[in-house]
Structures are given as C-alpha cells and as structure tokens.
Structure prediction request, 213 residues.
Amino acid sequence: MTAHSLLPSNSEITTALEQRACAWARERLSDERFAHTTGVVACVTRLAPLHGLTEQLPALRLAGWIHDAAKENDGHDLLAEAQRLGCRVRPVERQNPGLLHGAIALRQAEIALGFHDPVTASAVLYHTTGHPAMTRADKLFYLADLVEPSRTAEWIVRLRPLVERDLDEALLFALVHQLRRLLRKGEAIDPRAVALYNRLLAAGVPPPLQAEE
Ligand SMILES: [Fe+2]
Ligand SMILES: [Fe+2]
Prediction:
C-alpha cells in the first residue's frame, strides 16, 4: 500500500471536528509526515475494534490527526511555544525539547479547534514516551503511531503481530527497543518511560527475549 493510497476520502472522516482537525494538521505538516498521520488514523481505526476500544475510536482518530502537528517545529520554537501556552516543561523536556511536540500540538489544537476530550488528550500527551498511568486507549495509540503502514523497520515488522495480540506485551517490546536506542545514542531518558517499564514488569508482562533491531 502506498502512502498516497492512505489519504482519506471525506466519507471516511466521521465528524465535522475531525474534518477540521485533518485540515488543520495538513496545513502544518510536510507530505511525508501527513502521510504518517493518515496512517496512524487508519491504524487506530483498524486496531480499536480488535481490542474492545470502539467507543474511544472517535477520540483516538482525532488524536491521530493532531498528535504530530508540532513535530516539524524546532526545539527553540517548542520551548517558546510552551512558555506562551503555559505548558509546564519538565527537566527532561528542557534537555530534549522535541519531547514537547505532543503537548504543544494538543494545546494548539484545543485552542484552534475549540474542543477538549480527555481520551484524545492523554493519547496525544503520552504518544512519544509513554506514561505509567496509560489507559488501554493510550497504549493502542502509542502502538499505532509505531506500526502504521509507512513504517518499515525490521523491529516494527516484528512488533505488528504483537500489537494485534496483546497491547501490554507489544508495549513492553516497543519500550525496550526505544530505551535501548536511547542508551546506545547516549540520550536522556524520560522518567515516564522508565516508570512505565517498571509498571509493566510489576504487572507480570513477559519481557521480550529479542527486542534489538
Ligand atoms: Fe510524535
Ligand atoms: Fe506520530
């Protein structure tokens, strides 16, 4: 399937708010990132019924459209925007302002589109690093962001069947991969990701035997 074939027809967009969110995101994103965004919406739409999350689907589709709308802003812009919007900046976000892209996009979208939905909000806020208090809807969204069809890395190919089967196992697999990548690169690790890792292990989720690329 090509990225182009993932672009939505109007009939696939379910609400007027979603239509406006799609257009708002389109204005802010490159073709490539908008294709990713469209892929995430398609992916949550396919996965939500598999995991009993159909009720949350409209909110997750909205999260899909807006979640990366600030991702093409540089770190300086993100910090300035955080200050303007009154978003709290944690130490790890000051170190790596890219981590703020979800929080900034959420606040910008809520203001521009005039909505607030707690399911959309936590899915967007936790899509980059995870959070120990993630809901099942947040977990599905975090994973859809990784396995949407334009992603082709080998570890993503191994992650896809896990996402169909068990959200927690898939999440731990993905998290271990992401933590190892950050350690290899010598980059700061968000304490939320570490807390989520510990929470999943404490809940008895089996750690992946092979999560390397
Ligand atoms: Fe993102
Ligand atoms: Fe994304």
Notes: The two ends are 23 Å apart (CA to CA). Confidence is low (pLDDT under 50) at residues 1-7.
